[in-house]
Amino acid sequence: MAARDVWGSRTAFVLASIGSAIGLGNLWRFPYVCYKYGGGAFLIAYAICLLVAGIPLLMLEFSLGKKMSNASPGAFRGVHKNLEWFGWFAVGTGFIICTYYSGIMSYCINYFCYSFGLSWGNTPGEFFFDEVLGITNNPQKPWELGAFKWPLFAGVLVAWIWIVASIWKGTKTVGKVVWFTVLGPWLLLIVFVVRGVTLEGASQGLSYYLTPDWSMLWTINPGAGQIGAHELWLAAISQVFFSLTVGFGVMIAYGSFMDDRTCIVKNAWIIGIADAMTAVVGGFAVFGALGHKAFLEGVDVAQVVESGPGLTFVTYPEIINGLPLPELFGVLFFTMLSLLAIDSAFSLVEAMSAAIKDKFGFTHARANLTVAGVGLVMGLPYLLGSGIHWLDIVDHFMNFFGLPLVVLGTCLIVGWYYRASRMRHFINERSEGKIGIWWDIRIQLIIPAFIIFMLAFEIHERLKAPYGDFGLRSQEVVFGWAMLLLVLLGAVALSVLKGSKEFQQRQPASSEEDA
Ligand code: TRP
After folding, report:
1. Domain boundaries, the chain
2. How many CA atoms lie within 13 A of 244 on its CB side?
3. Is the CB of 97 within 6 Å of ligand 1?
4. How far apart, in Å, do the first and last CA atoms of the chain sit?
5. What angle do CA 476, 481, 483 make, to 5 degrees?
6. 3-class DSSP state for residue 432?
7. Positive or negative CA dihedral for 420, 425, 430, 434?
8. Please, what is the Cα angle at 218 between 412 and 308, to 5 degrees?
9. Nearest CA owner, ligand 1 atom 12
10. Cα separation, 220 vs 227, whole angstroms
């Protein structure tokens, strides 16, 4: 087999994986999901899911990639030759996420420009929804698409060009780029946290964030308009996966570039903890700001804003307004957010194009341009007036259904078919820290059982109340499922296409080196 790209150094591998994990998921998605699902209770569920599922799965993905020396489709094909489609399904889910992720990046890039004049003024909420998005929020007319926002398009274009440029030279540059994209943002985040928690009234928000309402963790039927425990747990586990970039084939591809001496166990822990810390620490800034807003308006923290994908673009500008030299901090903040986002986005493009290169023997440039081109076009609908609404729906379906299904499949395939103990031995062979039998139990039993339960409850509730709390209309539910089905069909189609000679000749990893 041709030599694979390997990371320039071991630190580069860790940084690239951290770069993939830490992104908008931490500072954009985590706060609004946490806010929506009850603050403190969500935080507890999140921590448990991270330890029980997130970090063990990170180990699994790294080792699967390393073991099979292939990106996701080839790696699953290595387990069984009829499982290639599953690998494509994982990358496909990530790809759909990437199409709207670049939309959020475009908001960041636009906000970078707005920061110079503090364009959001004293009403960041109205500015965001009315002026930046030109939102059409008419429940009677879900198909009212609204105007196409050209400034957002410019932002998306910049995002994609930037993504492709960052990975143009493969893993060698990725290793260097991430030094800036990971370490720089942390310094700035600290400033925002300090400002957020010292705003007047912040304590109210922080107590919502840090004081769990325990009963939320087990009350499945809390009554109309409340959040059931199954939904809270599903939101928590999918946020963990989303944030760690687990279940998208990305960490499989990154694992396949690992050198032989990289400690899988230790690195999974470092990455998992660093990622969670970024989200949780960032949460202090956001909840401080929410408390401040609640204080000013004399309302309850839980009611102060409508939680959704717009939250970050409302709360952070408010924090910025309260800082000395707000323009400077605005510019720095949105630079940071874009930097965090870029390495998450390119990790998926990298995983997708590694898969295409592995299978079809495309050149690096051709693979990247294809992925970026298709991604750009598929992201255009999110730039319409109704865009953020569709973004929310796609995000919900991909993360509440697609992602758990991918992880469930991964656990069943690797845990039972390939056998968890076999993978554990492989991990332990190349790790200083060893993992024990508990790892097998999580992969084989706990995680699958957990996901099956949550999904069953969620689907059951959805069938009972199709117009549920999300205010989803039936067309939108159909749209969400159709989207998932399309990803599945696309995955099957890609797996059926004939690959390069080298790829076709790959044999399932038999017992070669399982001594
Ligand atoms: N982990 C990334 C973050 O926290 C988000 C992410 C997960 C992602 N999967 C992705 C981004 C696929 C783009 C494509 O921001």
Report:
1. 10-498
2. 35
3. yes
4. 22
5. 95
6. coil
7. positive
8. 80
9. 94
10. 8
**Rounded to an integer, what distance in angstroms lies between the CA atom of residue 226 and that of residue 500?**
53
- The DSSP result for 194-253, as a single string, is HHHHTSTTHHHHHHHHHS--GGGGT-S---TTSPPHHHHHHHHHHHHHHHHT-SSSHHHH
The rounded distance, in Å, linking the Cα atoms of 442 and 432 is 21
**Residue 375 beta carbon below 6 angstroms from any ligand 1 atom:** no
Q: Cα of 25 to ligand 1 centre, how many Å?
A: 6
Structure tokens at 102: 């670049």
Q: How far apart are the CA of 243 and the centre of ligand 1, in A?
A: 6
Half-sphere exposure of 323 (CA within 13 A, CB side): 26
Question: Would you put residue 57 in left (φ > 0), alpha (ψ -120 to 50) or beta?
Answer: alpha
Sign of the four-CA dihedral 352, 356, 362, 366: negative
pLDDT digits over 399-440, tens only?
Answer: 999 999 999 999 999 999 999 999 999 999 988 888 999 999
pLDDT digits (tens, 9 = 90+) for 369-394: 999 999 999 999 999 988 888 888 89
Handedness of CA 388, 197, 55, 446 (dihedral sign): negative
Mean pLDDT of 33-44: 92
228 with 324: CB under 8 angstroms? no
Rounded to 10°, the helix 55-68/229-244 angle is 40
CATH code for 10-498?
1.20.1740.10
Amino acid letter, residue 372: A
